[in-house]
Amino acid sequence: MATKLDPEARGRAILVGAGPGDPDLLTVKAVRALGQADVVVHDGLVDERVLDLAPETALRISVAKSRSRHTLPQEAINALVVAHVQTGAIVVRLKGGDPFIFGRGGEEVEAVRAAGLPVEVVPGVSAALGCAAAAMVPLTHRDHASTVSFVAGQCKGLSEQDWTGLAGPDRTLVVYMGVATASAIADKLMADGLSPETPVAILERGTLPDSRSFRTLLADLGGAVERKQVRSPAVLVIGEVAMLGDCEDILSHYAARAEALA
After folding, report:
1. Where are the transmembrane segments (predicted)?
2. What is the pLDDT of residues 52-102, one digit of tens each?
3. Could you give the CA distance from residue 81 to residue 94 in angstroms, rounded to a whole number?
């Protein structure tokens, strides 16, 4: 059974969700945790303004990851956090979005607990929620979607995954980390029965000043990502709710294709 940690205790880890980018989306508890940190182990996408909430004396350690390059493998990150906690430090493991939604927070909690050390988790605004809100895309809507699913676009064996029923009428599918595999994701969903006409919102760097959002058809998802040179971080919102957002509507650029699919 989990126990509430003593807020004055030393030698503990705090997994903190930094949200999708905008520092104003941090929770009060997250700000409080950062303010007492001795060590901040942070993801590469965490905004500098968030990092600046930690004391000037706090040690900052970047464990930035990208699709092709990891500063440290996950096992080494786990060991790093444990090693600093064992010195008696308050270690804030600062993660983009929410620690328990595609953030490997579960693995890090297990590692700290296995070492017999105290750990707590401060949830954050997930990328799906933050980016969708910034683009005015409701993930659920009484008239369009009563179910929402989250999947990772970089999962192993994408072609072998069964995504049947994750998207379609009255459903919304949100794909994290799907930019590099956008074409394969579209092919997979269409092969599993989803209509090529399904609208998709592409939300890039949501909540940040340089954010962009586009809307297209599922059949043209890969092409749209390439033409618009979309880069991570971005999420894909697939379903009828994508038609409701404040996105640049690029469907009109492919009217002939849309009519052919109708």
Report:
1. none
2. 999 999 999 999 876 555 568 999 999 999 999 999 999 999 999 999 999
3. 11
Question: Catalytic residue numbers?
Answer: 43, 65
Examine residue 20 and say whether the peptide bond preceding it is cis (omega within 30 degrees of 0): no
Is the CA virtual torsion 134, 136, 142, 146 positive or negative?
Answer: negative
Question: Pick from 222, 162, 168: which is nearest to 198 by CA?
Answer: 168
Neighbouring CB atoms inside 10 A of 17's CB total: 26
Residue 138 exposure: Cα atoms within 13 Å on the Cβ side:
10
Instruction: Give the contacts of 192 (CB within 8 A, at least 6 positions apart).
Output: 162, 163, 164
Q: Under CATH, which number does the domain 128-261 receive?
A: 3.30.950.10
Tabulate helix, strand, coil % of the chain (nearest 5).
30, 25, 45
What digits encode the pLDDT tens for the residues 101-153? 999 999 999 999 999 999 999 999 999 999 999 999 999 999 999 999 999 98
* C-alpha dist (Å) from residue 43 to 65, 74, 111, 186, 216: 7, 12, 18, 29, 31
Domain ranges of the chain: 12-124, 128-261
User: Whole-model pTM?
Assistant: 0.88
Measured distance CA(207)–CA(133) in Å, rounded: 8
Instruction: Describe the crossing of helices 105-114 and 74-86 by its angle, rounded to 10 degrees.
Output: 40
Is-contact 159 53, C-beta < 8 A? Answer: no
Could you tell me the CATH superfamily of domain 12-124?
Answer: Tetrapyrrole methylase, N-terminal domain (3.40.1010.10)
- CA 52 vs CA 7, 48, 61: distances in Å: 21, 6, 13
Provide the 10 A C-beta neighbour count for residue 198: 22
Q: How far apart are CA 181 and CA 191, in angstroms?
A: 15
> What is the token pair recorded at 179?
């930019």
